[in-house]
Design brief:
Elements: H1 3-18, H2 22-33, H3 42-47, H4 60-79, H5 84-104, H6 130-146, H7 153-184, E1 193-196, E2 202-211, E3 214-223, E4 227-238, H8 251-265, H9 268-271, E5 274-281, E6 285-297, E7 300-308, E8 314-321, H10 324-327
Antiparallel strand pairs: 1-2, 2-3, 3-4, 5-6, 6-7, 7-8
Helix pairs in contact: 1-2, 1-5, 1-6, 1-7, 2-5, 4-5
Length: 330
């Protein structure tokens, strides 16, 4: 989940727990964003991996420590009053909400660190979904700008309850869709992993193998009520490309030559499920796009473009491009 959504849902959760009490609402909302402060631990995380992003701050232990410091000490001091244990409670709720929302996506967290690194990864939503991002940004403008001091309190309450209803509905639909596609993935093909898209009714069904020095991936686009609408598409390439000269004779060879170079150019290809397309360019050249099946927005996917010249030389550059299978949908 994005930071705006984390803070907004923590604000709504705090409102549900204590009602309209501004000091507690502020504390709960801040706690909803605090776990992502681990990005500032980057130099330390290189030496101690437990401090990596989605590490100890996204665990029950880490959330409890942050809530204890913030709720029992910092918040009462800055607010000049209030019940420290209520501060602790709302900050604990906001932090746990953040952890669970991240685990709800395809970006795993380890909730029992430092005692266990067992991951929580429901794969029901994107790590950053632009639907919730837009709703959250607009909601902050509405609550803190357009409505604050300008409308009757009952209008503010109606807005808060409407947002609560939206997010409850959103998470229920996402969870139900994940459950349903998980049950059906094997009945429509040899697929093991459902990958969420921005639309909860559209999924990518995937099977990946990385063994014996090769990466084999196949995926298809699945729509509820319609089944598979695109694919399956497949690639089978060596993880590390060997020395080659001369032109690539076909798309399969262009993909095989370029994957190792693309992996070196961007870690996103190793950190997520990835795929590749190759199209001929000019006389004997190829343009290859290796891209993540998980990190995408507005029809484009994060990845690497590799240009293969007719003489076999290659140049790689990170890029956001439109995959061929998406072009077929337009």
């Amino acid at each position: 989940m994005d930071l705006f959504t984390h803070v907004l849902t923590a604000y709504l959760l705090t409102f549900g727990l204590v009602g309209f009490q501004p000091n507690y609402l502020i504390a709960g909302a801040i706690a909803g964003g605090l776990p992502d402060g681990d990005v500032f631990l980057y130099p330390l995380s290189k030496r101690f991996p437990i401090f990596r992003h989605h590490g100890i701050t996204h665990s029950i232990f880490g959330v409890t420590v942050l809530a204890a410091i913030g709720g029992l000490w910092v918040a009462p001091m800055l607010a000049h009053g209030g019940n420290p244990w209520i501060y602790f409670g709302v900050m604990m709720a906001g932090g746990l909400g953040h952890m669970l929302e991240d685990g709800f996506t395809h970006f795993s967290v380890a909730p029992f660190l430092p005692f266990s690194d067992r991951p929580l990864e429901v794969d029901a939503d994107r790590a950053i979904n632009f639907v919730t991002l837009v709703v959250s940004v607009f909601s902050f403008y509405l609550l803190l700008g357009a409505e604050r001091g300008h409308v009757a309190f009952v209008v503010y309450l109606a807005t808060v309850y409407a947002l609560m209803a939206f997010f409850v509905f959103y998470f229920v639909v996402r969870a139900a869709a994940r459950y349903s596609v998980g049950r059906r993935k094997k009945t429509v093909g040899d697929f093991e992993t459902p990958i969420p898209t921005t639309n909860p009714f559209v999924w990518l069904l995937l099977r990946e193998r990385k063994e014996k020095g090769r990466m084999q991936t196949s995926f298809a686009r699945y729509v509820f009520g319609r089944g598979i609408t695109k694919g399956p598409y497949s690639v089978d390439v060596p993880m590390e490309a060997g020395p080659t000269t001369g032109p690539a004779k076909d798309a399969a060879e262009a993909l095989a030559r370029s994957y190792g170079l693309a992996r070196k150019e961007s870690r996103v290809l190793d950190d997520t499920y990835s795929f590749g397309d190759a199209v001929p360019v000019g006389s004997g050249g190829w343009k290859v796009h290796w891209y993540s099946l998980e990190f995408s927005a507005f029809g484009r996917s994060a990845g690497v473009n590799v240009d293969i010249a007719p003489d076999g030389t290659m140049k790689a550059k990170t890029a956001w491009s439109v995959p061929l299978w998406r072009k077929e949908l337009s």
